[in-house]
Structure to design on (255 residues):
């Protein structure tokens, strides 16, 4: 096979991302999108396990995205970033609305074996084991769009919904090139979890597509894109952990 990018022994720079994609029912995605964020013409779930320096220490994480549009622009609504470093959770969420929360991540490649396991509050909700096979074509240089929600509910125990900062859509444009792209054949297992209910709320309706993808460029632009209706958004305030999974008032019960 063609050799991939070379790194210094023991370095985490240029670790490939494990990209897992599968189809689900559009109704499953619709139930998770706040009013103003729309379903797209595709209904895929995108799971990315990674190790990337944030800002200068290794962050192991799992990114959970679903296809979604905002004001006619295609992109991904971000359900959550489960990460293994606490220092990046609150500043990411409070400044930009990035839905990060603590999560235990095991992710490695040993020879051709690729393994990922994600555990939160004692529940292993995602596991993948596979074999890296042939290199595949590089996607062209491209920009991906994520939709985050920045919101701050009003201080105090109030019966009605108030906001210190009403819900706004955050548009995240990330520009990528590709250093290496490699097919992986394997098995994705989604397990029941009250904290990360992927298996229940975003069940698979197709085989999983898996690859190891090493980006060669990373440029990110984060901006407010528009305001959502505060009253319609009220049921989506209650979430699990720091994610955008619905909490007690909108979905599975917290433990």
């Amino acid at each position: 096979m063609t050799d991939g990018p070379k790194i210094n022994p023991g370095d985490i720079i240029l670790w490939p991302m494990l990209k897992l994609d599968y189809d689900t029912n559009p109704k499953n995605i619709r139930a998770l999108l706040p009013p103003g964020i729309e379903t797209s013409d595709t209904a895929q779930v995108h799971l990315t396990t990674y190790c990337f320096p944030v800002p200068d220490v290794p962050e192991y994480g799992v990114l959970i995205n679903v296809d979604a549009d905002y004001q006619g622009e295609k992109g991904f609504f971000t359900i959550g970033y489960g990460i293994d470093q606490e220092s990046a959770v609150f500043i990411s969420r409070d400044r930009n609305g990035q839905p990060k929360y603590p999560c235990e991540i095991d992710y490695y490649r040993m020879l051709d074996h690729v393994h990922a396991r994600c555990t939160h509050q004692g529940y292993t909700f995602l596991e993948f084991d596979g074999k890296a096979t042939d290199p595949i074509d590089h996607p062209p240089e491209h920009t991906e769009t994520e939709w985050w929600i920045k919101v701050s509910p009003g201080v105090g125990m109030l019966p009605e919904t108030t906001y210190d900062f009403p819900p706004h859509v955050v548009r995240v444009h990330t520009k990528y090139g590709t250093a290496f792209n490699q097919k992986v054949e394997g098995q994705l297992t989604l397990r029941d979890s009250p904290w990360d209910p992927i298996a229940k709320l975003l069940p698979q309706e197709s085989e999983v597509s898996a690859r190891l993808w090493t980006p060669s460029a990373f440029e990110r632009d984060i901006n407010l894109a528009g305001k959502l209706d505060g009253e319609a958004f009220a049921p989506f305030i209650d979430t699990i952990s720091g994610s955008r999974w619905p909490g007690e008032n909108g979905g599975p019960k917290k433990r």
Observations:
- Residues 250-255 have pLDDT under 50 and may be disordered.
- Residues 17-236 form a domain with the Acetoacetate decarboxylase-like fold (CATH 2.40.400.10).
- The two ends are 47 Å apart (CA to CA).
- The chain is about 10% helix and 50% strand.
